[in-house]
C-alpha cells in the first residue's frame, strides 16, 4: 500500500496521557489520587493532562465516595475510547513498517520521471 504515513493523535501521543487513557481503559475509572500514584506524576502535571483530556471530550468526571470526603473520579468517554482505539491502530500500522509488513502504509514518494528520448 502506498500512501502517507498514518498521523497520530497529538493529544494522545504524549507518554503520560497515553498511559493515563490506557489505564482508564482497563480500570474503568480512577480517582485523581489513584492516577497520581500509578503514573508517578506531580499534582500539577496530572492536573494539566487531565484538563486537556476532559476539554477534548476524551474523559468525563464523576464524584466518587472514597472515605470521609468525596473525590473526583475520571473515566473514558465513548469518544475517548474511540480515540484510543484509533491511536493504537495507527501506531500498530507504523510498527508494521519496521517489521517489513507489506500491507502497512508507505510514505508518499514522487514517481521517478521517465527518461526523454
What keyword list fits this structure?
elongated, single chain, disordered C terminus, Arc Repressor Mutant, subunit A, 117 residues, alpha+beta, three-stranded antiparallel sheet
Provide an overview of this structure.
The chain has 117 residues and is an alpha+beta fold. The protein has a single domain (15-98), classed as Orthogonal Bundle (Arc Repressor Mutant, subunit A), CATH 1.10.10.10. It has four helices and three strands, in the order αβααββα. The protein has a three-stranded antiparallel sheet. The model is unreliable at 106-117 (pLDDT under 50).
Give a brief outline of the structure.
The protein has 117 residues and is an alpha+beta fold. It is 47% helix and 16% strand.
Amino acid at each position: 500500500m502506498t500512501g502517507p504515513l498514518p498521523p497520530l493523535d497529538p493529544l494522545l501521543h504524549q507518554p503520560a496521557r497515553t498511559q493515563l487513557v490506557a489505564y482508564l481503559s482497563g480500570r474503568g475509572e480512577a480517582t485523581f489520587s489513584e492516577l497520581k500514584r500509578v503514573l508517578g506524576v506531580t499534582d500539577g502535571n496530572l492536573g494539566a493532562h487531565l484538563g486537556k483530556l476532559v476539554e477534548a471530550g476524551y474523559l468525563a468526571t464523576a464524584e466518587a465516595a472514597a472515605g470521609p470526603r468525596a473525590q473526583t473520579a475520571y473515566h473514558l468517554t465513548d469518544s475517548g475510547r474511540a480515540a484510543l482505539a484509533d491511536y493504537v491502530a495507527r501506531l500498530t500500522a507504523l510498527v508494521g513498517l519496521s517489521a517489513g509488513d507489506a500491507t502497512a502504509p508507505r510514505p508518499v514518494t514522487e514517481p521517478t520521471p521517465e527518461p526523454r528520448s
